[in-house]
């Protein structure tokens, strides 16, 4: 397994319950693919550096995890089609 870091931004115009269910959805994708979450940080609402799709703020989430490349492909696919996500980035952690 390789170490990865995932950061994604969730829209701010949705209810807190939807934010929590979105976070749990991505945690489940990692753990169901035999991945292991080593650190999970819901950083809260922050200002975006620039406007994205008319949004100026977003809920930032940072996840460090170990997983196989197949899990990354599925995670990326689901992140792209989830309407609540404004932006996401998955990088291989070299540390």
Automatic annotation (TrEMBL):
Protein name according to UniProt: Small ribosomal subunit protein bS6
Organism: Paenibacillus eucommiae
Role of this protein: Binds together with bS18 to 16S ribosomal RNA.
InterPro entries in alphabetical order: Ribosomal_bS6 (IPR000529), Ribosomal_bS6_CS (IPR020815), Ribosomal_bS6_sf (IPR035980), Ribosomal_S6_plastid/chlpt (IPR020814), Transl_elong_EF1B/ribsomal_bS6 (IPR014717)
Gene Ontology cellular component list: ribosome
Matches recorded under SUPFAM superfamilies: Ribosomal protein S6
A Pfam family of this chain: Ribosomal_S6
Family: Belongs to the bacterial ribosomal protein bS6 family.
UniProt keyword list: Ribonucleoprotein, Ribosomal protein, RNA-binding, rRNA-binding
PROSITE patterns: RIBOSOMAL_S6 (PS01048)
């Amino acid at each position: 397994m390789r170490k990865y870091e995932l950061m994604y931004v969730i829209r701010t115009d949705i209810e807190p319950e939807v934010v929590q269910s979105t976070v749990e959805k991505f945690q489940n994708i990692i753990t169901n693919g035999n991945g292991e979450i080593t650190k999970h940080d819901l950083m809260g609402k922050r200002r975006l550096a620039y406007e994205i799709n008319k949004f100026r703020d977003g809920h930032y989430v940072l996840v460090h995890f170990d997983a196989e490349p197949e899990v990354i492909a599925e995670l990326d696919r689901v992140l792209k089609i989830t309407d609540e996500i404004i932006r996401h980035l998955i990088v291989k952690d070299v540390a």
